Structures are given as structure tokens and as C-alpha cells.
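cron nightly-structures :: item 1 of 1
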Amino acid sequence: MYWDTHMHCRFSGDSTAEPDKMALSAIKKGLDGICFTDHIDWDYPGPTPFSFDPAAYFETLSSLRQQYQTKINIHIGVELGLQPHLKERYEAFTGKWDFDQVIASSHVVHGYDPYYPEFYDGKTEDQAYLEYFESILENLSIFRDFDVYGHIDYVVRYGPNKNKNYSYHKFQDVIDEILRTLIAMGKGIEINMAGFKYGLSHPNPTEEILKRYRQMGGEILTTGADAHLPEHVAYNYNRLKDLLLAAGFSYYTVFEKRKAKFYPL
């Protein structure tokens, strides 16, 4: 009985899923709760607009929460695609709306999304990955109004060789600095099970990074599958407990009204 606190529905530009179908899938799979975290990625360079009407979002999900209140807990969150120049705009947005959880993510790096091959033009795969990680530090240096940083090695989902040549140890210095910074800020990370869906055989971030985060004193860890379709809700959650225990955790985190609650495994 876990929560899935990273999922998307038709309010995200890359999903057509109806919110009630996502909720029903979670109920069928026996989850304690879910949090919708649809995308806001202003100034996204690709053809897909990543934005939604927050009033309609809250109206729809609040009604859904009321409808299924006896069957599952439903929280309302958002996933912000950080870029340094969006700082003031995002702060105004999160300050206006009563989210349960705010995920900060890096989807666009210096004008390019690593999802697209153009991000890798003119650089080696290692250079591209390093640029991605360093961009997270750029975002963390100016933006604080979030709860967890999402899929901090997102880039390896889409690199030319994905994670074939990737390891935590190759990028240990910059990843450790990311973790150190998040811990000092009182922010958390997530275990994002979509890495398995993308054929990586690992979550995002990898087991080594999760373990390192815990060794460094990190305590806030949310759980999510990054589902964009009902069938991907709680994806590979049968592996979740063993992954968390192996990383040194005996609990996981759920945010309600931006406050962390800790649940035993």
C-alpha cells in the first residue's frame, strides 16, 4: 500500500489520460493515495505546449477527490520544468495556488530538451550528461519554492546510448554536489520508477544515487511512476520496497499542503 506521487493526465501536454481513469487504476492496484503532478514547462522549445489552466485543474481534481474520497486519497500537485529565467514567474505561480506538492525538474537545458537528438549535437554523450547535471545546480542556485527534485538523471532516458556507459561514479562530483545542495535546502528527491518503463533496468535516479543520498543524510524521498497512461500507474511497484530498503530507507515521503509526512515501508 503505497502512494504514487508523480503522474500526469490530460492537463499535461504529453498525456491524453482522463483523471478519473488514472484514479481508478490506482484504486484497482490498491494504492493508498496519488498526487497528480501535471506539467508546467513555460518557454518549452518543442512543438508541445506544456501548460494548463490552474483554475480548471483544481476544479477538476477537487471534484475527483470528493468523488473517490472513500476509496483513495487524491492530492493536487505540479511538476515545474525549471529554467533560470523563469524564477519570478514560477514563484508567483506556486505562491498563488494551493498545491500539495511541487516537483522541480530539469527538462530544458540551455534551450534544448535532452528528449530530442539536437541536445547532443556537437558534444560527446558524457559532455551532454555533465551539462545536464550542471544545469540542475544552476537551477538550485536561484530557485527554492519546490519540495522535491524530479528524476535527477532524466537525461539518461534519451541519450544516444541511454545508460549503457553511464554510472553514478562517472559523474560523482557533480551528483554529490546536487545531493548536498538539496539536503542543505531541506528539499527531497524522488524514486521515479519510469526508468524501468524506458528500458534502463533502473529507476531514476539509479540505486547508487539513492543510496548515496541516504548516506549523505537525505531523508525526504517520494515515490512515483511518472505515469502518463492508466496502465503505467504504480509501474513496477512490486520492486519498490526492496529498492528503498537496499538504499537505506525504512520509510517514504508524501507531501500534503507542502508539508512532508513520512510513512513506514
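cron nightly-structures :: done
The longest strand covers residues 73-81.
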